[in-house]
Amino acid sequence: MAELEYNYIFIAQKQLHTALILFFEGNDFFSSAVLAKSAENIFGQELDCNEFEQNLKNTEAMYWFLFKETITRSQYSQCVNRIINRIRHGREDGLNRKKEGALIKLDAKKEAEIWIDMAITNYWNLEHKLTVEMQKFIFEQISSNQV
């Protein structure tokens, strides 16, 4: 096969698409999480992620696109903090690499959800659009959180 050049955003889009397919199939949350994290990282490098106001503005636009409603600064902060806290506190008794046969304790599905959510957010902030699969993921997350 001939060597070709690929745009990093194109690669990240493919990674996120595959992560979403694997997530929906429910068979490989580990690979889904790894692919989504890779895509999130590539999209994030294209953004100035330290710009809270710009991220808030972009999130407001995505929220309006999906729900035809506005999101408040407080709701946005809660959403961001929820993600950060789940990552920070979700690993308290996790990886111990010093022991032979070390194990990691985690909820693989939840880990995939976190990274897919972050990748979709970064994608939206770059492109201001969502694929059908991204919309499906968001709506399923909302439905499952309303229980």
In short:
With 147 residues, this protein is an all-alpha fold. 69% of the residues lie in helices and 0% in strands.
Number of domains: 1
Assess the beta-strand content as a share of residues. Answer: under 5%
Helical content class: 55-70%
Q: Give the CA-CA distance, first to last residue.
A: 50 Å
What's the tally of helices? Answer: 6
User: Biggest sheet, open or closed, and with what strands and sense?
Assistant: none
Structural class by helix and strand composition: mainly alpha
Shape: globular
Instruction: Write the element-wise H/E pattern from the N-terminal end onward.
Output: HHHHHH
Please give the structural blueprint.
Layout: H1 8-25, H2 29-45, H3 52-67, H4 73-89, H5 108-127, H6 132-145
Helix pairs in contact: 1-2, 1-5, 2-5
Give an overview of the whole structure:
The chain has 147 residues and is mainly alpha-helical. The longest helix is centred in the C-terminal third of the chain and has 20 residues, at 108-127. The chain has one domain (13-145). Helices cover 69% and strands 0% of the residues. The protein is globular, with a radius of gyration of 16 Å.
How would you describe this structure in keywords?
mainly alpha, 6 helices, 69% helix
